[in-house]
Amino acid sequence: MGGLIRRRRRRYRGPAADRQTAGSVCVVIPALNEERHLPDTVDAIAAQTLSPRQVIVADGGSTDRTTAIALARQCRVVRGGLPGAGRNNGARKARGSWLLFLDADVVVPPAALEEAVAVAEAGGLDALSCWFVPDSAGWRVRLLHWVSAGYFWLSTRLRWPHSIGGFILVRREVHEAVGGFDESVVVAEDQDYARRISRVGRYAFVRSPRVVISTRRFRSDGFLRASARWVGIELHRILLGEVRRPLFRYFNGAPEQPGDAHG
């Protein structure tokens, strides 16, 4: 992962015996042609102060080394598709009482899992998502993400729940109670998921931990076009409901462009 993240990589080889283990948490990562980003995501899991019970990669038919990378790091690989379908397939194979859905291009700080579980259990939460920062030094991109994260936090408190698919921690029984992710929603399925979860359990968008998300869409599409797409999707959801037709080019698998995001 480029931008602000420059850390020594540790290969994920299963929960370490000398670290506390979150035996009730399973990490599920949907992926499609993510050989460039998946190592950083999975290796960040290896650096957690609280190790998950298992890591599942739901592969959507990658033609690169995504599957090989996952297997080399002792992840279980299952069939994927669009992110919603991949997350659901991974959840079906998961063991444990908590599910943590990550994106394949997200890097989590070392104490993220421990902190998220502690926040959820202390607050009696059934699910949570968290604040996010971009892997870019561009001021426009950083400002947009700060405003977006603030909007997600405020709108959730005002009962219009938001999440980032890059980090959703949820109790297994709640995931099952809502039927998982709605696979008919083709974009922003994570937002729909948070909204439905909030109807059956306690959900929060928390300010900490904070995860680093990729800005490759801004590099490939440009700042204005990528920003307009974000706004267009949200307006569609508010005015017309969830997006169930391919009106917006789906984000997953967006090509990587060299350099920092513009702005």
Helices and strands in order, then pairings?
Layout: E1 20-31, H1 38-46, E2 50-59, H2 66-72, E3 76-79, H3 83-93, E4 98-102, H4 112-122, E5 127-134, H5 139-157, E6 167-171, H6 172-177, H7 189-200, E7 203-213, H8 216-221, H9 223-239
Parallel strand pairs: 1-2, 1-4, 2-3, 5-7
Antiparallel strand pairs: 4-6, 5-6
Report on the structure:
By secondary structure, the protein is α/β, with parallel strands linked by helices. The chain has a single domain (about 20-215), classed as Spore Coat Polysaccharide Biosynthesis Protein SpsA, Chain A (Alpha-Beta Complex). Helix content is about 35%, strand content about 20%. It has helices at about 40-45, 65-70, 85-95, 110-120, 140-155, 170-175, 190-200, 215-220, 225-240; strands at about 20-30, 50-60, 75-80, 100, 125-135, 165-170, 205-215. The protein is globular and about 40 Å long. Residues about 1-20 and about 250-260 have low confidence and may be disordered.
